[in-house]
Structure formats: structure tokens, C-alpha cells
């Protein structure tokens, strides 16, 4: 899971190009000679997607192995997070919401009219790019999900791997004193039903 870029732009009326107000990039996964081209492409996609997203809406656009999560607020302040497809969209949008609001407050809303409000290397955005690379550190729900996934991975051993060598589940069911005779009959019927429906 990786975030490649976060950008804030001002959504303009009509066909005007949205100016970039703040940016943060992590292009280390690209070769040195491709980085400027990748940066230019991200700038192009950001402007294009912001122009085509109505105010007050969010959308996620897939391009090759990356997702571009876009949000344009009602006031025209817009954000885009470019990340790989594994990165959770909920975390990307939470990141945008938090830092768009912070940017709005820090500039006292001057981003709407003043060209001086643009801050290409806005420090909180650069730090957010680093902090949010691991979504489980930045988002409590993702942290819980990661913990559940790890637990599930531990518990997902097959019954066959738990049984001793040469032992069969059918034999254990017959020997079991914990199961009623009705449960044993149910187990056998379920096994027959499942075996007749196997597609080959």
C-alpha cells in the first residue's frame, strides 16, 4: 500500500485550469529519469479530474495500477490522493477531509482569491504523505482490520493440518463422545450432499 501523491487545487468555473495550491509527492518507486514525467502526469490528471468532478462530490478513478481519489468541496477547495489499488479509499478520503480543512483554516480562506495562498510544499501535507503511507497507523478502523486479518490468518489453518498424520475427520467424528448420534448423522449427510455437488 502506497500513496504516490497528494494535491490540493482550486476548482475553477468553466474550462479554466485549476491552480495547484499544495502538493506532496513520493516518487521513490519510479526511476530517477521518470520522476519528472510522472509528476507532470499527476499534475495533468489532477487538473483533469478536478475539472470533471462536481462540487460536493467524491469519486475514485482507476488508471493502470493506481487509483485517484478526488474530492471537491462545496466551496471549491479540492483534493486528490494518488495511490496504489491496495490503499483503502476510506483512508484516502479521511486524509483529504482532514487536511483540506486544515489548509482552509491556515490560509483563512484566502486560497479562493489570492495567488499567494498557494504553498506548493505545504509542510503538513508533506508530513501527511509520510504518516499515511501505512493506513493502519493513520486510521483506527484500518488498524483493527489489520489486527483481524492477522488473527484470521493464524486461525485459517485447515482442519487437515490440525489432525495428526494419517488421522481422518470421519474417524474422529465416529469416536467422538461430544457429538450426539443426530449430529453424526447430520455430518454424514452434509458430507454426502457436498460431495455430490463438486464441479470438475
Automatic annotation (TrEMBL):
Membrane topology per the entry is:
Lipid-anchor
Q: What is this protein called?
A: Uncharacterized protein
Task: Tell me which residues make up the V-SNARE coiled-coil homology domain.
Answer: 140-200
Indicate where this protein resides in the cell: Cell membrane
Report the Gene3D superfamilies cross-referenced here: 1.20.5.110, Longin domain
Keyword Coiled coil among record annotations: yes
GO BP, sorted A to Z: endoplasmic reticulum to Golgi vesicle-mediated transport
| Residue ranges of every copy of the Longin domain listed in the record | 7-126
Give an example GO cellular component term for this record. plasma membrane
**What's the source species for this entry?**
Aphanomyces invadans
Q: Which family does it belong to?
A: Belongs to the synaptobrevin family.
Any idea which UniProt keywords this protein has? Cell membrane, Coiled coil, Lipoprotein, Membrane, Methylation, Palmitate, Prenylation
InterPro entries registered for this protein in UniProt? Longin-like_dom_sf, Longin_dom, R-SNARE_YKT6, Synaptobrevin-like, V_SNARE_CC
